[in-house]
Design a protein that fits this description.
Elements (H helix, E strand, L loop, with lengths): L1 E3 L9 H18 L5 E8 L13 E9 L6 H4 L17 H11 L3 E7 L3 E9 L4 H4 L1
Parallel strand pairs: 1-2
Antiparallel strand pairs: 2-3, 3-5, 4-5
Helix pairs in contact: 1-3
């Protein structure tokens, strides 16, 4: 596993953020044939690093990449639904937890995957919680 990026500080629920990272890394380890790459960085709308149409101006970007078989087309639309798994013996709860934890932080999850070339999960989380979120 390769981790890139410096120390990044953000506000959020430590337990939920731990679950996001743990589930993404576990999925990558189970799928990968080679190294896994984790990248953490600060992103901004003005630099064109955050997708348009979000309510994020400045965000922490977390990417987890693997070189596994990719996500099968038959589950792509249901990827974040509970109990959906492409892996035999998988509970299908990991990505559902990721999605809900990211939504609880008013963030965004993006997925890029192609057969035989691996998968990249990109998570955007607000660098700072809004006052109404903290209440």
């Amino acid at each position: 596993i390769t981790v890139e990026g410096g120390r990044t500080v953000m506000e959020g629920d430590e337990d939920l953020l731990h679950r996001v990272i743990a589930n993404l890394v576990l999925n990558a380890v189970q799928a990968a044939r080679g190294p896994i790459r984790i990248t953490v960085s600060v992103a901004s709308v003005s630099a064109g690093e955050i997708p348009h149409g979000t309510n994020l101006e400045h965000a922490i970007r977390l990417q987890v990449r693997d070189d596994g078989p990719g996500i099968p087309d038959e589950i792509r639309d249901r990827l974040f639904d509970p109990f959906v798994s492409a892996r035999t013996g998988g509970s299908g709860l990991g990505l559902a937890i990721v999605q809900r934890a990211v939504e609880a932080h008013r963030g965004l999850v993006l997925v890029e995957s192609a057969p035989g070339t691996g998968t990249t999960f990109t998570i955007f989380l607000p660098a700072k919680m809004l006052a109404e979120d903290a209440a």
